[in-house]
């Protein structure tokens, strides 16, 4: 206890003598440096991937005559990205990023932060617009045309640009854009190089090489020609008609599901010649043309009694009323030759279907229609009519077709060089009308989902967007909205972010 008292007293003596050691003259002087207040005209900036965002701070100095003796630092995600007074940031990744800015007075060493961070929003210019697959100098490549009102922006050589200069491949066939959890994917079918690949549609970075993601290796002579994407199952069609599937669990991680190496089979055979361009996310159904039985098949997603993921492929239901006398059975078309098939007015559990068939008797083309209805579970087919197709004298073996779904127009190509663009009014059945003649052979035509424009890809590497709105059709004079040249050879055209499966 005595020792404790002694220690307390000693400490008290030290404390009591401390004030006497400091000479307080009562004149305090602090160095705040040349203080500066930093703010921004706006605190959010937007730019597309790989574009440059420029941020100009607004500064107010305590000493306006001394504004140069400062160091600058910009930080994003805890990493310094610039030491310049103006931020010039190139967005390399999609997302929202917060930038923090500091100025340091060199004389005093005092650092002054901006009043708030700045938000940098980097988005993709490739999420919507026209997607193009082309071949140039023996290599497959991707291009994109972004539409902003009446202004068009062209991007070419995209695969190499976003994949470290790698060649995508060769002998391109087709591209498709489709939904994946949290974004959009893109599939490229090509026969050369690394073969079919899967990309992130917004960043155009490669995710998967198809031949490497089959459960037991890719099929023999793997050269796919068609592909379709549905809510629970995707299909890839090889050149021999065999169909391969990958089944997608709900909220499946993108680019993580393999293709099953065993081809699908149903009674009567399954050799698919055409996956129709239906808006399955709206109608709930898809349609396939099957070559073995020369028939149509219907497919349905979200099959309750089979659980999910599941998809049902089956023959078309027999109509409740007999087929008309002059009508070709959709379950077995016999000797009638399938030329084209597609749908119009795709809506909730409904599609207007149409086919172009070639008669075995007179070798002429016929236009045949039907209605596809459903209660969500059971489909119902109502036969329409079969009439001579007004474009019989125009269509050739090279002809391409695209349905303008909201407006019941069929656009197609013709001419000895396949350089003529025609249209047929399916609602009135009026004679076909020649819309335009292009400077080169037409390789592909695709109608926009809004029904007001059409994309045309040419053999000479030209891509043209035409206006097909009502007023243009009424005026009877073609109207070109945009033209992109120098692509080598355009192979396929899609509407990115659209409805087609």
UniProtKB/TrEMBL annotation:
InterPro entries: PKD-like (IPR032183), Quinoprotein_ADH-like_sf (IPR011047), WD40/YVTN_repeat-like_dom_sf (IPR015943), WD40_repeat_dom_sf (IPR036322). It comes from the Bacteria. This is PKD family protein. It comes from Pseudobacter ginsenosidimutans.
């Amino acid at each position: 206890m005595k020792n404790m008292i002694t220690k307390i007293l000693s400490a008290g003596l030290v404390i009591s003598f401390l004030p006497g050691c400091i000479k307080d003259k009562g004149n305090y002087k602090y160095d705040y440096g040349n203080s500066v207040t930093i703010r921004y005209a706006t605190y959010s900036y937007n730019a597309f991937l790989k574009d440059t965002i420029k941020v100009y701070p607004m500064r107010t100095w305590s000493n306006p005559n001394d504004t140069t003796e400062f160091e600058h630092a910009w930080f994003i995600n805890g990493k310094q990205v610039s030491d310049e007074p103006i931020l010039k940031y190139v967005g390399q990744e999609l997302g929202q990023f917060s930038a923090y800015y500091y100025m340091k007075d060199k004389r005093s060493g005092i650092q002054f932060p901006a009043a708030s961070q700045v938000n940098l929003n980097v988005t993709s210019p490739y999420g919507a617009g026209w997607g193009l697959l082309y071949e140039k100098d023996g290599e497959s490549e991707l291009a994109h045309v972004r539409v902003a009102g009446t202004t068009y922006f062209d991007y070419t050589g995209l695969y190499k640009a976003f994949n470290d200069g790698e060649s995508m491949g060769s002998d391109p066939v087709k591209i498709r854009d489709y939904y994946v959890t949290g974004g959009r994917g893109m599939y490229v079918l090509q026969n050369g190089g690394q073969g079919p690949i899967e990309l992130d549609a917004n960043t155009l970075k490669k995710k998967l090489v198809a031949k490497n993601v089959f459960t037991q290796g890719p099929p023999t002579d793997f050269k796919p020609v068609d592909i379709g994407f549905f809510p629970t199952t995707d299909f890839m069609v090889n050149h021999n008609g065999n169909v391969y599937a990958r089944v997608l669990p709900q909220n499946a991680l993108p680019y993580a599901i393999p293709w099953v190496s065993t081809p699908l089979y149903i009674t009567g055979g399954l050799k698919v010649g055409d996956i129709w361009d239906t808006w399955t996310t709206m109608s709930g159904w898809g349609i396939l043309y099957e070559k073995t039985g020369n028939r149509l098949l219907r497919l349905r997603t979200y099959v309750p009694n089979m659980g999910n993921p599941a998809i049902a492929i089956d023959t078309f239901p027999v109509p409740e009323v007999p087929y008309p006398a002059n009508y070709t059975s959709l379950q077995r078309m016999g000797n009638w030759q399938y030329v084209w098939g597609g749908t119009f007015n795709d809506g909730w559990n409904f599609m207007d279907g149409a086919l172009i068939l070639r008669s075995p008797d007179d070798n002429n083309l016929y236009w045949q229609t039907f209605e596809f209805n459903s209660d969500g579970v059971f489909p119902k087919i109502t036969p329409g009519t079969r009439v001579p197709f007004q474009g019989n004298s125009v269509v050739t073996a090279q002809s391409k077709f695209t349905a303008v779904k909201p407006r019941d127009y069929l656009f197609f190509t013709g001419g000895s060089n396949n350089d003529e663009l025609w249209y047929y009014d399916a609602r009135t059945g009026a004679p076909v009308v020649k819309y335009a003649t292009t400077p080169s052979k037409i390789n592909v035509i695709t109608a926009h989902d809004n029904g007001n424009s059409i994309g045309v890809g040419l053999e000479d590497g030209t891509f043209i967007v035409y206006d097909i709105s009502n007023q243009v059709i009424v005026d009877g004079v073609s109207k070109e909205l945009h033209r992109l040249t120098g692509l080598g050879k355009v192979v396929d055209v899609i509407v990115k972010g659209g409805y087609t499966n």
